[in-house]
Amino acid sequence: MPIDQVAKNLNLALVHHPVVNRLGESIGSAVTNLDVHDIARTAKTYGLARYFITTPYADQHQLLRELLDHWQTGHGSRSNPARGEALAIVRLAQSPLEVVAGLTELYGVRPLVVVTSAQARPNQVSYQELGRTIREAVPVLLLFGTAHGLAPELIEQSDYSLPPICGGNGYNHLSVRSAASIIIDRLLGS
Q: Smallest Cα–Cα separation from 111: which of 100, 95, 126, 124?
């Protein structure tokens, strides 16, 4: 199956609630411009059809709509059309559960929900195995956490987790933008 067809089975969600802070408390985090832009550019480069930003906060939705409007129909669309093209795949959602429900309706089957983390988690699936699953036309939703990662309840509700990205020197604190790029490449790269 051509990679552009395979990539249509892989969906991303950048989760802003529920996530944890450095103390492990469940919180909501703020949307950041760089995460929206950079992950959209990576997702578009690899042919993904959808990149969800999930937050229950109305002010964050308003901020995102203004950002998307600027790059898709405003001045930004004329000064940097490629940015608008990448941001065209961004979708707003209240929660990961809303994303799962929408994708279930779209595909006619619930997607596999796979979490990412800087720590090893139960129910791990290898990058190679998940890549094969995606190539077999199984819809997958990858959840990426902001702040200090996804809240335990999201991890517990997932089908699988991916292994942490390890550089080999014990330091493991990538930005979510970097982690998303590496993981997408491991799953879909040639």
A: 100
**What percent of the chain is modeled with pLDDT above 90?**
88
Is the separation of the CB atoms in 43 and 187 below 8 Å? no
Beta-carbon contacts of 76 under 8 Å, excluding residues fewer than 6 positions away, are 70, 83, 84
Both tokens assigned to 66: 């203004």
Q: How far apart are CA 80 and CA 153, in angstroms?
A: 39
pLDDT tens-digit map of 19-54: 999 999 999 999 999 999 999 999 999 999 899 999
In tens, the pLDDT along 67-92 reads 999 999 999 889 999 999 999 999 99
- For residue 108 the two structure tokens come to 């006619």
Max mean pLDDT range (4-13, 148-157, 165-174): 148-157
**Global confidence as pTM:** 0.95
The structure tokens listed for 149 are: 């990662």
Q: How far apart are CA 160 and CA 114, in angstroms?
A: 5
Where do the domains of the chain lie, and which CATH numbers do they carry? 3-188 (3.40.1280.10)
CA–CA gap between residue 15 and residue 93 (Å, rounded): 10
CA 172 from chain center: how many Å? 19
Asked whether the CA dihedral 132, 181, 46, 51 is positive or negative, the reply is: positive
Give the distance from CA 141 to its chain's centroid.
8
